[in-house]
C-alpha cells in the first residue's frame, strides 16, 4: 500500500486510506478477471478442442473430469493471495481478510483438483483388464474422504487462527462420535480391501445374495454400497461390508469354467419298477444306445444264473430291471449329447426314495454358460426323458389332480 501511495503522490494525488483500498481491490479484481479470461476462454478452450480432436484417450478423460479447470481456479486464488501480500499493508484487517479468503479458495479448489485427478485415474484404470480385479472406486472414495477431512481441518484452523495440530489432538476425544458418524465408510473401506486382497468379488461377476434379493451382475463397487443389476434389470444395493460379514454366492467360477451344471431329478413311480421280460429286452436292444449294454449285461446274467441258480424262482436269479436299464440309457444319452461337457462330471444316479417316488437325478454340465442357451439345452433333455420313460414301462410320479379324483368318483358311481 505504501508503494501505491508514493506512486500516487508523484502524480500530485493525495489519496486517503479508503481510496487506496478501493484502488487496490480494483487492481486485484481486474487482474483476476483478466487472468480468468486468459485461462478459461483462451488456454483451456484451445486445449479442449485439441483434446477432443486427439486420438489420445487420456486427454479426453482429463477434459471430461475438469481437472485443468479446477487447477486454473486454484492458480487464480494463488495470484490473488500474492497480490494481497504485495499491495495490502501487512497486519491490516483488509490484508488478513483477503489472504484468508484467498487461502480458503486455494484449499477448496486444490481439493477439488485432487478429486478430479483421482477420477482421471479411475477412468484410465477402467481401460485396463487388471482394474476389474480391484474395487478401485471404493478405495478412491476412501482416499477422497480422508483428504476432505484433512483439508476441512486445515480450513477450520485457518479460520480460527489455530494450528491444525491442536484440532487433530482434540479429535481423540471425538473418536467415538467420528466412528459412529463414519461407520459405514470405514467398514466399506476395510471391506473393499478384503474383497480385493482375497479376490472375492470384482466388476462383472454374477453375484447371488438372497438376503438382499440380489441375483445378477455386479455393476458398481463403491465405498459404502455395491450395485447389482438383477436379471429383470432391477438394481439391488448391498452394503459393501455385508459382502464380508454375510455369505454370498459368486458364479464367476462357473462362468470361467465354460460349463454350467444341470442338477435336476425326475420322480419315478415306485409301483412301476419291475424286472424286464424277454420281449421287453428284445425291444430295448434295438435302441442303438442300449445294444452294447444289454448284450454284455445279459451275457453276464446268464453266466451267473447258470452257475448259481438252482431253481426258476425269481429270488434265486439275477435279472435286469426297467429302472436300471433306464438309468443306463440316460447316461449314454448324455454322453452322446453334443452340448454336454464330457470332461466334467456326468452321471445319472438314484436318490433316496420317499413319498414322491424314486428320484433319479441328472447331473451334468452344458458346454455353455449363457443363460438362454443353458435353459434351452436343459429343457430339450428333459423333454426327451419324459417322452421315452414309457418305453421302459415306467411312470412319472404325480400327485392326484382334480381329474383323477373325479375319475375315481365316477368309477364308484358306475359300481
UniProtKB/TrEMBL annotation:
Ranges annotated as spanning the membrane: 20-47, 67-88, 94-118, 139-160, 166-193
Compartmental location: Cell inner membrane
Primary localization class, coarse: membrane
Pfam family, one: MS_channel_2nd
Keyword list, A-Z: Cell inner membrane, Cell membrane, Membrane, Stress response, Transmembrane, Transmembrane helix
Bilayer topology annotation: Multi-pass membrane protein
InterPro entries recorded: LSM_dom_sf, MS_channel_C, MscS_beta-dom_sf, MscS_channel_2nd, YbdG
Annotated ranges, domain Mechanosensitive ion channel MscS C-terminal: 330-396
GO molecular function: mechanosensitive monoatomic ion channel activity
Segments forming domain Mechanosensitive ion channel MscS: 184-252
Superkingdom field: Bacteria
GO biological process: cellular response to osmotic stress
A GO cellular component entry from the record: plasma membrane
Family per similarity comment: Belongs to the MscS (TC 1.A.23) family.
Protein name: Mechanosensing system component YbdG
Gene name, Swiss-Prot/TrEMBL: mscM
Amino acid at each position: 500500500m505504501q508503494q501505491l501511495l508514493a506512486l500516487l503522490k508523484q502524480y500530485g494525488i493525495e489519496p486517503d486510506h479508503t481510496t487506496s483500498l478501493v484502488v487496490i481491490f480494483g487492481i486485484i479484481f481486474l487482474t483476476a478477471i483478466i487472468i480468468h479470461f486468459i485461462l478459461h476462454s483462451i488456454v483451456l478452450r484451445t486445449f479442449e478442442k485439441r483434446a477432443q480432436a486427439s486420438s489420445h484417450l487420456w486427454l479426453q478423460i482429463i477434459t471430461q473430469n475438469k481437472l485443468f479447470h479446477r487447477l486454473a481456479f486454484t492458480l487464480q486464488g494463488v495470484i490473488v493471495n500474492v497480490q494481497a501480500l504485495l499491495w495490502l499493508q501487512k497486519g491490516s484487517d483488509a490484508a488478513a481478510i483477503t489472504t484468508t479468503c484467498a487461502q480458503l479458495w486455494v484449499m477448496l479448489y486444490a481439493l477439488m483438483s485432487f478429486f478430479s485427478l483421482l477420477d482421471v485415474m479411475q477412468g484410465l484404470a477402467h481401460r485396463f483388464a487388471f482394474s476389474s480385479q480391484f474395487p478401485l472406486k471404493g478405495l478412491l472414495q476412501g482416499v477422497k474422504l480422508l483428504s476432505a477431512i484433512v483439508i476441512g481441518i486445515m480450513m477450520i484452523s485457518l479460520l480460527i487462527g489455530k494450528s491444525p495440530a491442536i484440532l487433530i489432538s482434540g479429535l481423540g476425544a471425538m473418536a467415538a462420535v467420528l466412528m459412529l458418524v463414519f461407520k459405514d465408510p470405514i467398514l466399506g473401506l476395510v471391506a473393499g480391501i478384503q474383497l480385493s486382497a482375497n479376490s472375492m468379488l470384482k466388476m462383472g461377476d454374477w453375484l447371488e445374495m438372497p438376503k438382499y434379493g440380489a441375483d445378477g451382475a455386479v455393476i458398481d463397487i463403491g465405498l459404502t454400497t455395491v450395485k447389482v443389476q438383477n436379471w429383470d434389470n432391477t438394481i439391488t444395493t448391498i452394503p459393501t461390508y455385508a459382502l464380508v460379514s454375510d455369505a454370498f454366492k459368486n458364479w464367476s467360477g462357473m462362468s470361467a469354467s465354460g460349463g454350467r451344471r444341470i442338477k435336476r431329478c425326475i420322480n419315478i413311480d415306485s409301483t412301476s419298477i419291475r424286472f424286464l421280460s424277454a420281449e421287453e429286452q428284445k425291444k430295448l436292444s434295438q435302441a442303438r444306445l442300449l445294444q452294447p449294454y444289454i448284450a454284455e449285461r445279459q451275457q453276464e446274467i446268464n453266466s451267473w444264473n447258470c452257475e448259481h441258480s438252482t431253481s426258476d424262482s425269481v429270488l434265486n436269479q439275477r435279472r435286469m430291471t426297467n429302472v436300471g436299464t433306464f438309468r443306463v440309457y440316460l447316461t449314454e444319452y448324455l454322453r452322446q449329447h453334443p452340448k454336454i461337457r464330457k470332461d466334467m462330471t456326468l452321471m445319472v444316479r438314484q436318490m433316496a426314495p420317499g413319498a414322491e417316488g424314486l428320484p433319479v437325478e441328472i447331473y451334468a454340465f452344458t458346454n455353455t454358460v449363457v443363460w438362454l442357451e443353458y435353459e434351452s439345452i436343459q429343457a430339450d433333455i428333459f423333454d426327451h426323458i419324459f417322452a421315452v420313460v414309457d418305453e421302459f414301462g415306467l411312470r412319472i410320479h404325480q400327485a392326484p389332480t382334480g381329474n383323477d379324483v373325479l375319475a375315481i368318483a365316477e368309477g364308484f358311481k358306475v359300481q
